């Protein structure tokens, strides 16, 4: 039963991550965003955190419930990134807010991966 839940959580997290990434609006043809470095940095970090969650699931360090919570928060951060990029530029204030959210999420991932709860 636990293996079934775990695989459902993994599949769900992959689908959520992929669908949120696909929903990010593309800039109009021929236009360059004002802050490509900021955007790339935020997106790379989101990918790394997603990978950390996946590693925690694969190793059994994250329970299905912990995974769902972390994935839900990652989804919120991804929506904030998409919203910030929607107008074609990410302001310093938007980048600072997203960075703070990502810092908080990184701490959550670490705490959940290193607590005593495991799926094995």
Describe the structure in your own words.
The chain is mostly helical and 120 residues long. The protein contains 4 helices and no strands. Helix 2 (36-59) packs parallel to helix 4 (92-114). The model is unreliable at 30-34 (pLDDT under 50).
Which structural category do the helix and sheet elements fall into? mainly alpha
- Please count the beta strands (DSSP E, at least 2 residues each): 0
Radius of gyration: 16 Å
Low-confidence stretches: 30-34
Helix percentage range = over 70%
Percentage of residues in strands:
under 5%
Largest sheet: none
Silhouette: elongated
What is the tally of helical segments? 4
Order of helices and strands: HHHH
Kindly, what is the distance between the CA atoms of the first and last residues, rounded to a whole number of angstroms?
Answer: 12 Å
Overall mean confidence score, pLDDT: 82
